């Protein structure tokens, strides 16, 4: 298992290593076969300077390596959002807010990590620049055929899981942090969207986009969230039995594959033995989302508004699977869009009322383990399988985005199993409870 950020900071403070030495280890990992296609472009000289800066080990990130999804501006690098359409963009003149906060906190920015073109898929495939293969941070490299890393923050997930970064900055619009976290055996925290600025990032959905990160542990997730949100997480001394937890059955437990079902049930059993209060609830409101989004949803409409000028000139250069989803937004009328906003607000109110009696909800992060890259690789003959997999991967996580909520994915699989994520989640601004509960769950599941 990889050393997490908090433990490494302790080692640096004790003089057992240095930020510069740890950065070189991460750079070597980034150049290894495990990280093939993980980085789009790097700024290693700047990263080395950050790691060598006087007093850096006293900062929260202590000069340790950070990868940045290719939709966030890094000063001096072009932001391509995983697309050949923007590959010739001029270098950014300033860091976006999220990158600036990480840099000021001692993060050594390695460069841009790979992503799905324009962040529009949960699978992680990129036909322009290559697809990273999933890695298991808990038990090492996966054997057998290469598997999808999850998206859209594909490079962020693999960079952390394969040891190239301690933090992977990414975005989450429908699950794009939590899906790669689940498929790579790492931790992904999607905060309440309004808590972290998204300026200087190529948008997918201005309503749903969230700037957040992948880390090696829940305690690392707390450190990084405090940096990105410029706020302190209120820590709770309450033990696991003091929290009221619920497992919703509607939608979230449908069509689980055998590995995910076994890992999730085993985890619930272990938490119950540790005294956790877990109540199974129906939560039928989640079954209403298909009707709410019937006209296309926010991502289609809002992405089309941003992409329309580019599509007029460069449509043929888009990944056809991405272009088709963006172009669906052209059919949504202003009336449809306004009605969607009203429907979402009403649905959120019903959901918040239904879960008000619980401190957090528990679900599988995604219902399936990572499929092989070959099964969903670019090609019209595989489109049906790609869209089937994409819908499954996004199904559970996207509920939280529509709820305007917060969620944490942490690994719950054992050695010999493909990575599986357990999602701890709730409504808006319940971030601190989710993180405190996630910390307790992680400590318990690590006893497996």
TrEMBL record:
InterPro entries: Amidase (IPR000120), Amidase_CS (IPR020556), Amidase_dom (IPR023631), AS_sf (IPR036928)
Superkingdom assignment: Bacteria
A family per Pfam: Amidase
Domain named Amidase: residues: 23-435
UniProt xrefs under PANTHER family: AMIDASE AMID-RELATED, TRANSAMIDASE
Protein name: Amidase
Record lineage: Bacteria, Pseudomonadati, Pseudomonadota, Betaproteobacteria, Burkholderiales
């Amino acid at each position: 298992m990889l050393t997490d950020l908090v433990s490494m900071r302790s080692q640096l403070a004790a003089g057992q290593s240095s930020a510069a030495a740890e950065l070189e280890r991460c750079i070597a990992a980034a150049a290894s076969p495990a990280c093939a296609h993980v980085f789009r472009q790097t700024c290693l000289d700047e990263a080395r300077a950050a790691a060598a800066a006087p007093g850096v080990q006293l900062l929260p990130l202590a000069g340790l390596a950070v990868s940045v999804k290719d939709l966030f501006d890094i000063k001096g690098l072009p932001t391509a959002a995983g697309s050949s359409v923007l590959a010739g963009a001029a270098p950014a003149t300033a860091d976006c807010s999220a990158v600036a906060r990480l840099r000021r906190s001692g993060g050594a920015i390695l460069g841009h990590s790979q992503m799905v073109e324009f962040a529009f898929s949960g699978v992680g495939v990129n036909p322009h620049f290559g697809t990273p293969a999933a890695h298991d941070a808990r038990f090492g490299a996966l054997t057998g055929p290469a598997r999808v890393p999850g998206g859209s923050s594909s490079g962020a997930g693999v960079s952390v899981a394969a040891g190239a970064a301690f933090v992977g900055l990414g975005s989450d619009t429908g699950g794009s942090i939590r899906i790669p976290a689940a498929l790579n055996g790492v931790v992904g925290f999607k905060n309440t969207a309004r808590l972290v600025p998204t300026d200087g990032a190529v948008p997918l959905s201005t309503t749903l986009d969230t700037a957040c990160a992948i880390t090696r542990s829940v305690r690392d997730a707390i450190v990084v969230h405090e940096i990105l949100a410029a706020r302190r997480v209120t820590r709770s001394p309450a033990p696991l039995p003091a929290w009221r937890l619920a497992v919703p059955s509607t939608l979230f437990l449908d069509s689980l594959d055998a590995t995910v079902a076994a890992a999730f049930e085993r985890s619930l059993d272990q938490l119950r033995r540790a005294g956790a209060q877990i109540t199974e609830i129906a939560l039928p409101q989640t079954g209403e989302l298909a009707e709410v989004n019937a006209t296309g949803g926010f991502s289609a409409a809002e992405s089309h508004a941003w992409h329309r000028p580019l599509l007029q000139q460069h449509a043929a250069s888009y990944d056809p699977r991405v272009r088709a989803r963006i172009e669906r937004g052209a059919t949504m009328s202003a009336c449809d869009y306004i009605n969607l906003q009203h429907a979402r607000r009403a649905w959120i109110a019903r959901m918040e009322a239904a879960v008000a009696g619980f401190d957090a909800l528990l679900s599988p992060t995604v219902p399936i383990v990572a499929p092989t890259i070959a099964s969903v690789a670019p090609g019209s003959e595989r489109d049906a399988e790609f869209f089937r997999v994409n819908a499954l991967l996004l199904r559970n996580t996207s509920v939280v985005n529509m709820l305007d909520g917060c969620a944490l994915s942490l690994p719950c699989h054992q050695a010999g199993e493909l990575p599986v994520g357990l999602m701890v989640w709730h409504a808006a601004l319940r971030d601190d409870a989710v993180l405190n509960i996630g910390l307790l769950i992680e400590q318990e599941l690590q006893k497996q």
